[in-house]
Amino acid sequence: MYKSLQAGRAIAAILVVLFHLGIAISADKYFGITAFSIPFSFGGAGVNFFFVLSGFIILTAHRNDIFQPRQLKSYIKKRLIRIYPTYWIIFLSVFFLALASAALRNTVPHNAFILLKSLFLIPQDIGAPVIIVAWTLQYEMLFYLFFAFLILSRWLSIIAVLAFIYIYINYHGAPLLPLPLLFLSSDNILLFVMGMAVSVTCTSKIAAMKNKPVFYTSVGIVGVMLFLLLALSTVTDKSYASTNGINRLIAWQNLLYGLASSLIIFCLVKAEDEGHIIGGHGGLQLLGNSSYALYLIHYPLISVLCKLSLLIQLNKFGVTGAMIAYIIIFGICLLSSVVFFLWIEKPVITYLRNRPINILQNPSA
Asked: Dihedral sign, CA of 316, 317, 323, 325?
């Protein structure tokens, strides 16, 4: 894994945390200070970076597995272990803690079918209950499924691509679509495609010919400038202050954030290929390793800690109390994710990777 990309992953996760934290602090039920939601109102674009990065990583890691059906079991094992154990641990922890609290019991679903779909990241009309941000993992799993088609069969992958193109052209942006079409016609899917395009470009002959610092640095500067311009546009749009999810991003912004992320990732990869690591500091690398845990755990943590802030009456101190809560909650989110990664996620993932999974080793089991 490129260290520069791990640093990028850390920054993207932090942006998402600051985005949600600002919205929570500004909510009337907590501190009601709208200004806190504005500075990082563009933070939801961290998700765009994650989607592009995922497309890059999966194609880069499994390029040699394409059209090699015998590699499918290994691919499935790696992808399932990467996503589900950490998600299930956090999901079930939050779910049972909510059930144990009379004040939070009604915030989680009680329907077994809804819970099962949520556990297995199956898209549903109510989004992603319990772990709100898990809607992004639903797209991640869809992309993993498509890549499984690439590994399994050339024809299956061609059919999948043609089906997406047909759905996107005919249904993208249409109002009142049923869930499957709404999900499959989303711009988010194109962000994974952008990441794959970056992976192909990084190994192309053209990139090799222009593998000079001035070239990839220029590309990176354009990407950063584009991202900052989009961020400025978002911050100055006051209507973002009232949103609570990145779906508020309109199509052109969504794709332009993806383009900016693509250019940045290309620069980071080519620079590191030349021996120039950006963001290689140990602390930033640790946050990058902990970014998945941070992404999943921060939303319920923010909710609980904001309630605790009210309990100790920090809201009585106005802006000062809100700032104290903001800083403390942000710090606790970072610390909790690092602790979770080191003590739970990393040991569990290491154990599962080193342990044969019989159902994958023996399909008849």
From this structure: negative
Angstrom distance (rounded) from CA 320 to CA 33: 11
> Which residue's entry shows tokens 């990869």?
269
CA geometry: angle 198, 203, 209, nearest 5 deg: 110
Nearest CA-CA partner of 104 in 330, 300, 299: 300
Higher local confidence (pLDDT), 312 or 103: 312
Two tokens, residue 219: 């590309």
Cα–Cα distance between 216 and 198 in angstroms, integer?
A: 12
Residue 92: CB partners within 8 Å, gap ≥ 6? none
Q: How many CB atoms lie within 10 A of CB 283?
A: 9
Q: Cβ distance 58 to 329 under 8 Å?
A: no
pLDDT for res 364: 35
What average pLDDT score do residues 331-356 get? 95
d(CA 350, CA 344): 10
Taking a C-beta distance cutoff of 8 angstroms, is the pair 22, 36 a contact?
A: yes
Contact by Cβ (8 Å): 204, 272: no
Domain ranges of the chain: 3-357
Q: How far apart are alpha carbons 291 and 15 in whole angstroms?
A: 11
Residue 2 in this model has a pLDDT that exceeds 80: yes
Per-residue pLDDT, 251:
65
Q: Quote the tokens at residue 356.
A: 């044969």
